[in-house]
Amino acid sequence: MRILHVDTATEWRGGQNQIVLTAEGQAALGHEVRIFANTLGELAARASKASLPVHAASVGRGDLSWRTLVAIRDAARAFGPDVIHVHESHGIPGAILAARAASKPSRLIASRRVDFPLRFMSRLKYARMDRVLAVSRAVRDVLVSGGLPPDRVALVHEGVSDRKPAAGGAEALRALGIPEGAPLVGNVAQLVDHKDHATLLRAAAIVVKQMPDCRFLICGDGPRRESLTGLAASLGISDAVIFAGFRADLDALVPCFDIFCLSSHLEGLGTSVLDAMCFARPVVATRAGGIPDAVVEGETGRLAEPRDFEGLARALIETLGAPSIRERYGAAGRARFEREFTSAAMVRATLAAYAPEP
Length: 358
What we know:
Blueprint lengths: L1 E6 L6 H15 L3 E7 L4 H7 L4 E4 L8 H14 L3 E4 L5 H10 L5 E6 L7 H8 L3 E4 L2 H9 L7 E3 L13 H7 L8 E5 L8 H14 L4 E5 L5 H10 L6 E5 L4 H4 L5 E4 L8 H8 L4 E4 L4 H4 L6 E4 L4 H12 L2 H18 L2 H12 L4
């Protein structure tokens, strides 16, 4: 099967890592794969580094940019795909044009990774797809409630690669000024509104009052950084919260977390949660979006309601204070990861969803 993956974004985001993992897995199974990517984006470079064929092109602004439409059409003409798999909505019009202009029919597939309600134009675009892949039950429900036929929406959980902890975590924590032996709550997420770090910081203020030696390590960057550092200062917890920015050594840092915490109020699934489960870390998170698909209350971690900083703080304090429960949550999370959330499972489910409906 020939598969063209399309993503026109310039910014690197977690979902693009899943594009690379999916394409790698499909190629390993004998499929012919190519990635269409924005010349100015990071995806092209990372796909090339993974030895994946890339069609990089200059992409215009907006869904109906003629430059974008023609670039996707030309990439499809040159490759002749059986499947065009679009990974963000801005590339859908180009995929539709490419399918119409192709010498042979291509199935049109789109992935949806966010649980934001569908707007009118998005509904029209997704309705033209042969199938839409939802990364969680919450995203699937948004698509169906937005008017898409249920039989054209497939649940395909995202997955991450299975790997061992990298070396150097303890040294990295020392360099960040985290005292040895301090209880450590870690977070990995862009500093953007829907990740809701404000709720995490307000919960941290409660935790630190009861556990003054606890530290919170926030890995990631984004437009909310200045306001969040200001909030930490106003809460009096600047010494307990480390904003580490973008980190390339997460496979060394995450295994050092006593708890992984994600405080989003909107979330498609949360691949950083899957990374934590891969490393057998207990998770305390909110019930936002698709997070409950991965985190089972009382089995692999704890869940609080979105924006409920007091509930999040209680879950953190109770879990930090019970090492045996943390170990049990981590082991159960690792087992759940192996069953459902590996990149290999994602590749199998994606290929199955490409097939026409019976």
